[in-house]
Amino acid sequence: MMEKIDFLWPDGPHFYYDTALFPPTTDSFALGYFARPKRGDAVCDLGCGTGLLGALLLAREPSLRFVNVEQNADALALAERTFVENGWTTAFHAGDLRDAAVLPGAGAMDYCVSNPPYFRSNSGKSADSAARQNAREESQCTLADVCAAAARILRWGGGFALVYRPERLVDLLCELRGHGMEPKRLRFVVQRADGAPTLVLVEARRGGKPGLRTEPPLIIGGEEWEKVYFK
To answer: What is the pTM of this model?
Structure first.
């Protein structure tokens, strides 16, 4: 394990992470840019890891009332340091998001975000640590589990933004609708303008009416990508 600190911009908010747990990835930065909670919203990160996604959102809108849910104690400890040292008031819920007692109250959240496990269990080579395996594979927590948790804690009309793999887009849309959250915005992330997508970003609305808006692709390294890093 190797603990590190980084900054969102020079002399700006900082965040902690550990190379053996959940190192910063394109996924979190893309989702932090895509998610659109409103000023003052109560927001929950389901499976927050070391808290990077919350840091990204609070750096943009400090008025958010943030709740982090995470079962890995080491990761949650780093998240707490990030939020406390940046002066952000945040609640931390330690435990399994499949346990209703760990979650915020039913209907208490205006917005949820999550970077759930992408791959079905035993669908390929496993990660080199239990923490990364749980983050990468549905060995303990499935996409359905994450959607069920979001549906429970979101108020009627609340939003849920996720980042996922394009090859499982149908699974994602079906799970969201199956849990009463209607997909409303979709955006692919690509390495270059003419390339195939590597990630997909989706925002759903609890109890929303049908109607999905597809936004232009987010190009990694393109002009808009600079905004993702808050520079």
So the answer is: 0.91
